[in-house]
Structures are given as structure tokens and as C-alpha cells.
Write a structure and sequence with these properties.
262 residues; alpha/beta; Rossmann fold; 52% helix; 15% strand; globular; KR_dom; NAD(P)-bd_dom_sf
Length: 262
């Protein structure tokens, strides 16, 4: 995909992987639309990227856990931008708790932000892509969507939904020239764990193979315009997920200690 005059929308752009994605995209010359809850952080990021890369950056404050607010923001985004070439659904949240200890509100927030909000963004942006016969939708999924683990049943369900949605969407849109890529990640060194794992136990247990968001962002931006079905990081987890799909009982037995680190 030629980057000149291409516009990209990134959700959850104010911190973590979203911030790195924005920087990598700006370095490549994309015109950026950044959405997140913190307008102040978005404005600071926009100013930084504009200063460093001389690209246009527009911010949209929206709480993706609030359906009405997010849909209103999407209407504004579509109204103010004639064409959006790339959508990266990056916003995500999780709570690593045993299901019996998980509050209903936490379940609703997880499913809303990780699944429904991403689908709503796709529903708003894809019609414009269809008009132009081109575009790329990138869904930030998770290895948890392929291999569910204790204390992440709801989070795994939300990411499993995104993987299933992406697989169906990819087949629907391929004849129309629109690409769909799912990015399935293991633990990554971001502030996601501030909410998901306040104890810090899982972060410490995963320290030896924690992904760096800069590396992930580089892989994601590099895949734009390519027929890339999935990106799985780290690679050994991708292999493990295939084993799990083939022989789940054996995989749970062999990987039991690894799956229970939360």
C-alpha cells in the first residue's frame, strides 16, 4: 500500500502498544486519527508526532466501554474524514481473576471494549473502504483467544470472539480488495497489566519472554497492504496454539504449569 495521503485510525492510541503503533505509522508518513479515553494524552502524542514527523494527527476522545459515546465518536470520525484506509482496533482491557470472583461489570467492560467496540468500528469504517475497493483492517487479538487459561476465561472469550469475527470478515471482504489481519500476542510490556494484574505476579513470571511494544508495532505497520492472515508473537506461542487446537487435552497436560502462571 502506497502511504502517500493514506489515513489510519488507531483505537487505544494514548498509551502502550497504541502509542507505539502511532509513532511507527507517523514515521511511515500516515495521516493519523487517534482515539482513546484520555484527550490530554492524545493531544500530547499528536503534538509530539507532528513535531517529529510533520504529519497530520487528529484526536478523538472516546470511552469505548460506553456504546453511545463510541458510536457518536465514530460518526464524527467518518463525517470529518472522507477516506480511512487502515483501521487498527487496538483498544483492550482485561481482569485476571477467577471467573467466580469476576464482577458482572468487569465482564461487560471486557466484552464491550475488546469485542463489540472493535466490531462497531469496523461497521463504521468498512463501508467507506468498500466504496474505494481497498483498505486494511487489523485486529489486535491475543494468544488467549486461541488458548484459554485460568483466571482469564472472560478475557479469552473476548479475544476468541475477535479472532472468529476476523476470520469471517476476511473471507467476506477478500473479493472486495479489503484485507483483514489478526495480531495474536502473548504478554507484552505495557500498562495493560496495571489493571489486569495489579499484584504484578504474572508480569514477573512472564518477564523472560515479555514482548516489547516497539517490536510488535514495527511488525504490524510493516504488514499493511500485504495479504497477511495472522501475526503470532512470540513464535513459540503460535506453535503451542496449533498443538492446543490439535490435541487440547494433551496440550493442557504438557503446558499446565505454563498456562497457570496468572
Amino acid at each position: 500500500m502506497q502511504v502517500n495521503n493514506k489515513t489510519m485510525l488507531i483505537t487505544g492510541a494514548s498509551s502502550g502498544l497504541g502509542r507505539k503503533l502511532a509513532a511507527e505509522a507517523a514515521a511511515s508518513g500516515y495521516r493519523l486519527l487517534l482515539a482513546a479515553r484520555s484527550e490530554e494524552k492524545l493531544k500530547q502524542l499528536a503534538a509530539e508526532l507532528n513535531d517529529r514527523f510533520q504529519v497530520d494527527v487528529f484526536v478523538y476522545r472516546a470511552d469505548l466501554s460506553d456504546s453511545k459515546e463510541w458510536r457518536a465518536a465514530l460518526q464524527r470520525i467518518v463525517w470529518e474524514n472522507q477516506r480511512i484506509d487502515v483501521l487498527i482496533n487496538n483498544a483492550g482491557v482485561g481482569y485476571f481473576r477467577h471467573f467466580a470472583d469476576t464482577e458482572i461489570e468487569q465482564m461487560e467492560t471486557t466484552m464491550r471494549v475488546n469485542s463489540l467496540a472493535a466490531m462497531e468500528a469496523a461497521a463504521a469504517i468498512i463501508p467507506g473502504m468498500l466504496v474505494h475497493g481497498a483498505g486494511h483492517v487489523i485486529m489486535i487479538g491475543s494468544m488467549a483467544g486461541k488458548v484459554a487459561t485460568p483466571k482469564a476465561a472472560v478475557y479469552g472469550a473476548s479475544k476468541h470472539a475477535i479472532i472468529g469475527f476476523s476470520n469471517g470478515l476476511r473471507q467476506e471482504l477478500k473479493p472486495q480488495g479489503i484485507k483483514v489481519t489478526t495480531v495474536n500476542l502473548g504478554p507484552m510490556d505495557t500498562n495493560f497489566f496495571d489493571t489486569a494484574d495489579p499484584s504484578g505476579r504474572y508480569r514477573q513470571a512472564s518477564a523472560n519472554y515479555m514482548l516489547q511494544p516497539e517490536k510488535v508495532a514495527s511488525r504490524v505497520i510493516a504488514c499493511i497492504g500485504k495479504n497477511k492472515r495472522e501475526i503470532n508473537m512470540p513464535g513459540w506461542m503460535g506453535i503451542g496454539s496449533k498443538l492446543y487446537q490439535l490435541v487440547p487435552g494433551l496440550a493442557e497436560k504438557l503446558l499446565g504449569s505454563q498456562l497457570s502462571k496468572k
